[in-house]
Amino acid sequence: MGTQMHTVPKSIAPGVCLSLMAILLGFVLGGAFGAVESSIMGRLNDSGTAVLQTVYKGDIAAKDAVVRKSWAYLKRAHLHGGAIGAASLASILAIVLLCRLGTLAKFSALAFGSGALLYPIFWLFAGLSAPGLGSTGAAKESLSFMAIPGAGLCILGLCGTILSIAKACFFAPPDAG
Asked: How is the chain split into domains, by residue range?
C-alpha cells in the first residue's frame, strides 16, 4: 500500500502558524476562564465601577449589564479562536493535499490564518474594554479596525480555498498516465 506523505511547503507555513496561534489563543482563554474566572469578572466589574459616575451616570444596573455582556464577548473570543483556527488549519491542509500551490492558494492560506487570529483578538479586546467605555457597542465600534479586516480575511481565505480546490479538482487537465 503506497501512501504519499506531503510536506508542508514553506510558503504555506505562515498560515499554518497563524491558525495554530488562533487555536492556542482559544485554549489559553478557556484555561484562564477555568482557572481565574472570578478575577477576570472582578477586573471587568472594577473597570466599569471606575467610570460609574462619569460614563454610567451612577446606573449600577447599566454597568452590570455591560459587564455581563463583556463576559459573553470574552467567551466569544475563546470560541472563535478555537473554531476559526481549526477551520483555517483544515482549509490549509485541504489546499496542501489537493491543489497546486499557486498564488491564490498561498494567499488564501495566509488570509485565513491571519483572520483566524485577528478576529478572536477583536472579541477579546472588545470584552475587556466595554465596561470602561460604557457599552459593548462603543467597544465594538472603537475596534472595528480589527473586526472588519479579521472577518474579511477569513471570508477571503475561505473563498480562495474553495476556488483553488474547485480549480484543481474540477477544471485541471486530467493526469497523464
From this structure: 17-167
